[in-house]
Amino acid sequence: MPDPTARITSIDTYDVRFPTSRELDGSDAMNPDPDYSAAYLVLRTSAADGHEGHGFTFTIGRGNDVQVAAIDALRGHVVGRSVVELCADPGVLYRDLVGDSQLRWLGPEKGVMHMAIGAVVNAVWDLAAKREGKPLWRLLADAAPAWLVSQVDFRYLTDALTPDEALELLTKGKQGAAERAADLLRRGYPAYTTSPGWLGYSDEKLTRLAEEAVADGFTQIKLKVGADLDDDIRRCRTARAAVGPDIRMAIDANQRWDVAEAVEWTNALAEFDPYWIEEPTSPDDVLGHAAVRRGVHPVKVATGEHVQNRIVFKQLLQAEAVDFLQLDAARVAGVNENLAILLLAAKFGVPVCPHAGGVGLCELVQHLSMFDYVALSGTTEDRVVEFVDHLHEHFLDPVMIDRGHYRAPTEPGFSATMRQSSLDAYRYPDGAFWAADLAAPTPEARA
Ligand SMILES: [Mg+2]
């Protein structure tokens, strides 16, 4: 029997940064030297079970302190809440956070504040799933359709998706869910890998990693493009030669281009049969994406990792601007808003191929796709979750990849919990790694 008097007692925040820029891991046309970072929080409670809610959002270094400050600004909304009530209905807190009228001015529903809300909301879902003793995908898949609908904020969506339509989609999603859950546990969820294709890697490293990806069972890889066309032609040719004609090869420009340039550049790479062009232009440019999509056919268009909220996703779908919707677990306001985005995608029949990588994004987003397969869209056809083989060792329940598939998590929670030793080492600027690094006399002397 859960203690009805248990309260949230604290939110502890951490500025965690990893020095990934030194190996050019994660380098792309827009982000040449990312230090993968997490603005991380722990919800602690007075419950005797000792469970904590862990959550974070992802940044790439400088500004992670700003992101942590935004999480700190939400503390007053959370501390003191009843744990039982919070976990029974995370949508109440989500609406309170989004609805703080003074903080809302900083968005609304976009950017640093919104990502902070996502970190807190995701920590609540982690806590709720741990208290239920279920991995989050299972908690969502087992939930009653009407309750899931109650977790969604339909404000600004009803011209495209009504609560009744959402209920219908989720009710239909229940048919065959038990068989799909069994299939998921047996087979896992399809993944693709971005690890070979970072822009800063040599052709030799690209070839070696692309060949390894195919040998490991992946059927899709992704390459970063957009800095220099001649380089892109050479790298696409190199990668295509390494993987052969049957492996899907996506390309990703990380918002580098204007619309006309996106069309020209993508078409200049068409001979290498790219599967999709990702983030060809600004994530805010809905009509621009639609124009690119018309201009690069039969290459498909994918975007979403920087799409700031459910309303922009709605427009991308309404404008027929994307072939694949790449939601991110930690850019929007957490599980609640991602439920809305999954429902929108299901309504429009557009496959969701989530963004992952960074720090812990694979750990989080696998749960959303697995729920979508088991209890919403009911299919993995044309659906893949991004996989990047970095930094998983810092998590207590890291993702497991098996023959190109994410293995379904079985541990309770949202797979969000980082090891205490990693928090201690990589907390910026006073963790053990950074303290030693910043004390080094020259950049060359650093790790
Ligand atoms: Mg990308």
TrEMBL record:
InterPro entries hit by this protein: Enolase-like_C_sf (IPR036849), Enolase-like_N (IPR029017), Enolase_C-like (IPR029065), L-fuconate_dehydratase (IPR034610), Mandelate_racemase_C (IPR013342), Mandelate_racemase_N_dom (IPR013341), RHMD-like (IPR046945)
Mandelate racemase/muconate lactonizing enzyme C-terminal domain ranges (all copies): 203-299
An annotated Gene Ontology molecular function: L-fuconate dehydratase activity
Keyword check for Ribosomal protein: no
Cofactor requirement: Mg(2+)
PANTHER family: ENOLASE SUPERFAMILY, MANDELATE RACEMASE (PTHR13794), MITOCHONDRIAL ENOLASE SUPERFAMILY MEMBER 1 (PTHR13794:SF58)
Highest taxon, organism lineage: Bacteria
Keywords: Lyase, Magnesium, Metal-binding
Source species: Streptomyces vietnamensis
E.C. number: 4.2.1.68
Keyword presence, Calcium: no
Catalyzed reactions: L-fuconate = 2-dehydro-3-deoxy-L-fuconate + H2O
CDD domains cross-referenced by the UniProt entry: rTSbeta_L-fuconate_dehydratase
Protein name (database record): L-fuconate dehydratase
GO terms (BP aspect): carbohydrate catabolic process
